[in-house]
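Hi there,

I know you've been waiting on this one. I reran it after we fixed the sequence typo, so this is the corrected version. Both the input and the resulting structure follow.
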Amino acid sequence: MRRRNLLFGLLAVATLRSARAQQSGKVHRIAYVNPSVPTAQLTETGGPVSRAIFKELRRLGYVEGDNLLVERYSGEGRAAHFSDLAQDVVRRKPDVIISVTTEPTLDFKPATTAIPIVGIFGRPVEAGIVSSLARPGGNITGVAVDIGGDEQWGKRLQLLRQVVPHLTNLAVLETRRARDEWEADMPEVGRRWAVTYVVPPLNYPVNEAEYRRVFASLAQIGVDGIEATDEVENLANLKVIVELAEKYRLPALYPFAVFVKYGVLESTSRK
């Protein structure tokens, strides 16, 4: 996680420098967009991604309040509003847009082909953000964090099995769109680890009521544990996910340590 955050910070700075060469007295403008995290937390002392970005900016001489203006935006976990948010950001014509996660970037792509966009994605090729990892083309670059296959999903299963040895049926909390991106990996990984994936997709609007519906369905099906993906919807509803996992006594694996802070079993990241 530390390495990917550092790479993200480096890319953000490199894109800023190439977008507009540094000039004496020039104030550069960055639009920093997060799909769920409040704007008050998108700071130099915020989460790991924010800290990496601002640390690298400062190291290279870009200091907020001096020669850097950061305009912060939050989607507040409301995916239906991401398109309007993207249009609003583009109208303000920042030098660079930093877009965290796949979902808002999908709305930025049709909104502008001129403003450089740096993102952190799951699978940007499968999502349709770029044509290839080696040659993304266009105005979008960034870091892909979902390598898929046994290298990622298998390792997660291995980690969960350390505390749930009898794991044979695993539920995955994710939206229908995300499921379609990696569904091809599921049969092979499942066979390798003798696990059946149960993936009742979260339907929009993804809210507390929808999570309660899905968890009630999982209780009827009977699963041995759950895994929450790093989608914005899960991050925005982490409290209710933790509550429901405890209510239904389901061991759970989460993508970030922020979930663990609410008392869950384990996460795949220390950040």
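Quick highlight: The CA atoms of residues 75 and 167 lie 36 Å apart.

Best,
R. S.
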